[in-house]
Amino acid sequence: MFTRNVLTVFIAFGVLIGSWHPDAAAKEHRKSGINPHYQLYLLKGLADVFSTGMDFLEAKLEAHGIEGEVHSHAAWQSLAQTAIAKWRGGLRGPIVIIGHSLGADAAITMAQRLGEAQVPVALLVTFSPVDSAPAMANVARAVNYFQSNSAWHGQITRGAGFRGSLENIDLAQTPGITHFNIEKVDQFHTATISKVLTLVSPHTRTASRNSDASALQPTSISATNQ
Prior knowledge:
- The structure is a single chain.
- This protein is an alpha/beta fold.
- It has one domain (2-225): Rossmann fold, CATH 3.40.50.
- The chain is 37% helix and 20% strand.
- The protein has six helices and ten strands, in the order αββαβαβαβββββααβ.
- It has helices at 2-20, 52-63, 76-88, 102-116, 186-200, 205-214, and strands at 27-28, 39-44, 69-72, 95-100, 123-127, 133-135, 141-146, 156-158, 165-170, 222-225.
- The protein has an eight-stranded mixed β-sheet with strand order 1-3-2-4-5-7-9-10, sandwiched between helices. Strands 6-8 form a two-stranded parallel sheet.
């Protein structure tokens, strides 16, 4: 109970900061000057200070030639509007949304908002959401890394009309993993990058599939397909 109360205070503080400065904490990387055919958003958690793994993941994606945007979880509504506008404007490539902690909750909510607008989400990846929430019919694939023995043990559930692939990967028994470093683990970055490459680079499908299959082998991880 004490942990939950502390979490509530932190969340309220983070939401308050985000509402004051929704853009100040947002970080966007656009270095090539070329508009990609896809959309990739990474959302940070509380006050944007506990989710540096999103920055690391974005840098690794960039090294593979993939451009992503790192933002505060508080920016999800404006990002959803942007994604919808781009889709309706003719940018029909895959949309990928990734988030950690409150950013994971925001990623799921953002995907739901896109669903209301009939905009598909090719891949939704979440790291340790605070609360459980559904992926809707517009999501093709959802992957959630969580710990069932943590105070932050949200899972992605099957929403109305969901027919995609869903994985809730429980890391409760994996040594060294906590809510505060789960989004920084190289192994999970490798698996995520593989999935993104498969979506945005069709010619890498075979290599990405092989990499994805081996990415989770070094440690003992329990995956539940729901």
